[in-house]
Amino acid sequence: MSYRNQLLPMEKVFRDPVHDYVYIQHQIILDLINTSEFQRLRRIKQLGTTSLTFHGAEHSRFGHCLGVYEVTRRICDNFERNYPTKTPGDGGWDDHERIVALCAALLHDIGHGPYSHTFEHIFHTDHEAITVQILTSPETEVNQVLRRVSPEFPGEVAAVIQKTYPNPQVVQMISSQIDADRMDYLLRDSYFTGTNYGNFDLTRILRVMKPYQGGITFAMEGMHAVEDYIVSRFQMYMQVYFHPVSRSMEVILDHLLERANDLYQSQDVDAEATPHMLLPFFNNDFTLQDYLRLDDGVLNTYFNHWRDSKDQVLADLATRFLDRRPLKSARIDEQTKALVPSLQKLIERAGFNSHYYTDINDSYDLPYDAYDPKMKKPRTQIELMQEDGSLVELSTVSDLVRAITGKVSGDRRFFFPKEMLSRTAEVDLFDPIYQAFQQHIQNDRLIS
Predict the structure, then answer these.
(1) Are the beta carbons of 97 and 147 closer than 8 angstroms?
(2) Residue 183 near residue 153 (C-beta atoms within 8 A)
(3) Which CB contacts under 8 angstroms, 24+ apart, belong to 158-161?
(4) Are 111 and 127 in contact (CB under 8 A)?
(5) CB crowding 207-220: b at 16 or more within 10 Å, else e
(6) How many Å apart are CA 374 and CA 394, to the nearest integer?
(7) Phi (first) and psi of residue 369, to 5 degrees
(8) Which of 112, 28, 38 lies closest to 73, judged by CA?
(9) DSSP code, position 361
(10) Positive or negative CA dihedral for 348, 349, 352, 358?
(11) E runs forming strands in 51-202
């Protein structure tokens, strides 16, 4: 049997709190899990700073990637059993695609860095581009495993991640409005945050998924399960992913890394606390191996060193991050946005550098947006298959989904030091400044 389809002598399992068991049946999947690049994902939290709001959210990218693999494996099993291709081009499932789908599912997040989105923002890295690099670079263990299938196989798996793979069924399994990635992270994040918002009927959705020539569709009788998924996703964004405290800690993290970078560029960094493993990123000249050495623990270790920095801003931001002292925030809109510069001046008068201690942060998401070819990045639509085989787009038949289609949900917030809301009994030098600032905050909003 070729390496591509080589089965393990006995199926292996990972115990999983979300899927009960993750079943490993192919040698290549086990070999990929055992690579150094994949094991690194154990040391990167799935939700970054969210664990500072929901203390249970300590789960890793490793567990999520296993979960996406398991959901994809179940989809493949369902397609092979119920919708196998009989003649080329009939829209059925060709199980020869199973291994490329499973590998892409397992490896889809392998390029994430520590505190991924914040790190990307500061150092202008792109986790999807780095994922492709890990898959295709001969220096990685992952590439060496994939090449055992064929010299072209790493590029095929990368094409799934890049959404250029010729079979849309495989691409949509991993990346679409309703895919294995989203289904796993909603259930997993809901479980570990201790919230119920992300729960939906995964088993039912997998039962009603069907392959067709244009990709993946859902049986009409499964519409309510799909609606439930859309609402769950909406609720998780509102209640968990957009939580103001998590965003506040991200702002501190962002400004902490920015301050460290600024000090390095001005050659004003403490010699004993030089973050050697970050210097390639400060210099914007890093290799793939430099990137793969980084994880959450590496950054946290530098933050601990920076507590003792002679630079007061760096030391204070590091302490605020490690000791969970979030900034406060208030909602702003187009009218009250004009107040921000004057509030920043008050913050400066109270002794804070407004560049590092304030920010405006947007968090918006379209819970479900119908396919629009005029969009720069059209989203895949969710289509339902009727009894006669014709397709209808979900929002045209679901009142519930139509109600939130195209509606942007989220808010824009102005973040500032908690000290600005101080109300001390003692006479404080900054009291008049605090009072002037507090006149513009009411019920979690900026007011004129």
Answers:
(1) no
(2) no
(3) 158/131, 158/132, 160/100, 160/101, 160/104, 161/104, 161/107, 161/108, 161/128, 161/131, 161/132, 161/135
(4) yes
(5) bbbbbbeebbbbbe
(6) 19
(7) -125, 125
(8) 28
(9) E
(10) negative
(11) none
Residue 77 CA to its chain's centroid (Å)? 27
Do 269 and 370 contact (CB within 8 A), yes or no? no
| Token digits of residue 146 | 């994939």
Question: Could you give the strand order of the β-sheet that contains 209-212, starting from the edge strand earlier in sequence?
Answer: 209-212, 215-219, 383-385, 391-393
| pLDDT tens digits, one per residue of 317-366 | 999 999 999 999 999 998 999 999 999 999 999 999 999 999 998 887 66
pLDDT for residue 267: 84
Closest CA to 201 of 187, 211, 216: 187
Residue with tokens 């139509």: 402
Q: Are the C-beta atoms of residues 252 and 317 closer than 8 Å to each other?
A: yes
- 133-161 pLDDT, tens per residue? 999 999 999 999 999 999 999 999 999 99
Contact by Cβ (8 Å): 56, 194:
yes
Q: Which residue has the higher pLDDT, 316 or 372?
A: 316
> Tokens in use for 182?
């989203």
CA angle 295, 260, 40 (to 5 degrees): 5
